[in-house]
Amino acid sequence: MTAPSPTQPPISDVVLRLTPAQYRDKVLGGWLGKNAGSTLGTPFEGRTEAMGLTFYDPIPLQPAANDDLDLELLWLHALEVHGIGLTSLDLAAEWLEHMRYPWDEYGYATFNLRRGINPPLSGLHGNWFRDSMGATIRAEIWAMVAPGSPDVAARLAYQDAVLDHAEEGVWALMFLASLESAAFFVQDADRLIDIGLARIPPECRIARAIGAARSARLAGKSALEARSAVLGEVGVSNVTDTAQNLGFIALGLLYGAADFGASVCAAVNCGYDTDTTGATVGAILGLCSGAAALPARWLEPIGQSVVVGWGVEGLPSPATVEELTDRTVAVGLRMVADRCPHVAIGEPGPEPTATREAPEAETASAAGGPSEEPEVKLVVVEPDWLNASQSADCLTRSSTVSVHHHAGLEVALDFGAQGPAFAPGVARSFVVELRNLSDSVYSGNVELSAPAGWKAAVPGAQGPHVRLEPGKRARLGYVLKSPAGLPPGRPAPISLLLTPEQGEPTALGVPLQPVACWHVVGPLKNAHGGGFEQGFPVESKPGLSETYLGRDDGLVGWQPIAFATTIMDIESIFGGTAGVAYCKTALRVATATDIKLVVHTNDGVRVWLNDRLVYQVHDHTPLRPSLCSGPGADVHLQAGENRLLVKVVRCDEPAELAMSFLDPEGRPVADLGNAQW
Predict the structure, then answer these.
(1) What is the pLDDT of residue 490?
(2) Dihedral angle at the C-alpha atoms of 345, 351, 353, 358, nearest 10 degrees?
(3) Of 17, 129, 304, 651, whose CB count within 10 A is highest?
(4) Using CA atoms, how far apart are residues 462 and 394, in angstroms rounded to an integer?
(5) Are the beta carbons of 509 and 116 closer than 8 angstroms?
(6) Residue 319 burial (C-beta neighbours within 10 Å; 0-12, 13-18, 19+)
(7) What is the DSSP string of 43-92?
(8) Domains of the chain as residue ranges with CATH
(9) Distance (Å, rounded) from C-alpha 172 to C-alpha 242?
(10) Which residue has the higher pLDDT, 368 or 447?
(11) What is the pLDDT of residues 545-577, one digit of tens each?
(12) Which residues share a beta bridge with 516?
């Protein structure tokens, strides 16, 4: 093919263009739309019945304060501080410094990060809420700084979501961030949904929920029938579950037919996580249309102010949406210039193109025909929006890894399916993967350091010396065994010693966590459902050598059981049918202290501390085991050993139980000395 002559305009990779005014108007529209939708939905958050809203109720005087926006202000600050090349570890550092909300997945992520468990494992380990909506509320910032670049937005979304989510909770943010990124240039709802679906696993629950909403719409069913279809496909009791709520977001887009009020109301009227579903639909429509096209009746009641909640501290928060928009655009211009080569934000110029259409004369020349310079026709080619190859690797990354950076090395500690938990006297293995991020060779020793009494070994012929060229990786395996009797208090430090040939040695903490050691006995009879009220011999004779008459008229005795997280798997005790069981452990503290005992269950529980009944409940409300809040009792622990006995009653449904301990400031206590039998 003959090269263009100097007089011909060059063929450019730029295929999408916005003027600065258009870009700013769309970002402003996204923030205003989010504020409006969130304010509509906030009063109804958690309601599970269908509703019939057509406007704000009550009519507000300002936008609702909401973590949906607060955490995006945090990420905007992180982008401004760390730059567009920020990592999950940068986000984690900002989270620990500024984020104070203790709810659900936020509480579990903070607890993990404070113990040295880094992303992506911080979003998985012990986190009952890993599939919830806490990450999806943060989609707009990643889309806005990467307009028309769904893969760039999806990758940014991934490194955000893994802080406090895994699997569906991560895919939900990737779906929305990529969809919203495309919304700068694509307005059709079905097409936007396809762009988002291209970047998540096709058989995941989110995809199934969206498929149910689409099928209902295609079949001519009402929005209410579509809601039922979504719940029938993926519905669960967790009101913040991502799959059902993303189904409602899709429903709002599909049934609202690009009308702002109809769309946000359709999503919010489905109930469940209404502040987030309304906010997301509002943001999408604002990005599609721009602020100038949003209906004034929805914007006038909320005005231009930014209302920040109590859960983020120390941030330079914008006072108005205009200020927020200007700061977002400033970051976005840097991101587009650096990572979005097919997008241009500038004043109109020569028509951007992605290909060059050669006329017949040029083809003839290439085949030996006329050699005169042909006219070159320039054509604009739209991106292949469904090509997700640039973000596909995010879907295959392991979530069992805690990633750390040090001196040009990325150190990934892979604890496998069992997570970072260890039991006393039991050997466990883990893998360390090193990647050289620097431009020079790394050469040095890598060794495991364990406290006295621990046994550390390496499999096979693995030696301590590692030599890594730039960009190369090495995998090392280790086996650790703790002593059978662990002392109370915080676990002794375990370190990975990095000793380069040039430079100072460093000890990198290995965040292994001790299990909670309990004993259980059961099942005992829950005769005619009266097991909660009945006193069993266990309560008067709780010694570990005792045996009792079991549910099936045989004798049962105490058995050791370890719980790696605050979620206690007790259903295995009951074998699928009704019964009663008892669990006991000893809490050991060096000095007397006050704590709050938090108990979540879906059935009957009684709790004794040092032989005194401190809490009881018999309630079949679905489990929602928030780590840092919930029912329970304020109790006093005496110095030394404290006996904790828990009676668990199972009726018709599988038994669920979660227990956590909070210090006087409301923070979860990592270990209370029951990491030994």
Answers:
(1) 62
(2) -170
(3) 129
(4) 30
(5) yes
(6) exposed
(7) GGTT--S----SS-SSPPSSPPP-HHHHHHHHHHHHHHHH-TT--HHHHH
(8) 27-333 (1.10.4080.10), 400-513 (2.60.40.10), 516-662 (2.60.120.260)
(9) 7
(10) 447
(11) 999 999 999 999 999 999 999 999 999 999 999
(12) 563
**Nearest partner of 614 among 606, 622, 604, judged by Cα:** 606
With CA atoms as reference, report the closest residue to 400 among 107, 115, 120, 87: 120
Nearest to 139, CA basis, from 8, 342, 286: 286
- Give the DSSP H/E element, type plus range, for residue 634: strand 632-637
Strand order in the sheet with 559-563: 559-563, 516-524, 579-589, 640-650, 604-609, 612-618
| The two structure tokens encoding residue 500 | 């380069």
Alpha helices in 490-647 (DSSP H): 571-574
Pairwise CA distance, residues 214 & 220, whole Å: 10
Q: Which helix (H) or strand (E) holds 97?
A: helix 88-98
Helices (H) and strands (E) in the chain, counts: 18, 27
- Please state the pTM of the whole predicted model: 0.92
Here the tokens at position 476 are 């090392």
pLDDT tens-digit profile of 159-169?
Answer: 999 999 999 99
**Structure tokens, 612:** 């005194």
**Tokens encoding 409:** 């090395």
DSSP string of 198-229, one letter each residue: TTS-TTSHHHHHHHHHHHHHHTT--HHHHHHH
Tokens of 355: 């290909």
Contact 401, 166 (CB under 8 A): no
What is the rounded distance in angstroms from the CA atom of residue 433 to the CA atom of residue 350? Answer: 49
Sign of CA dihedral 175, 176, 181, 182: positive
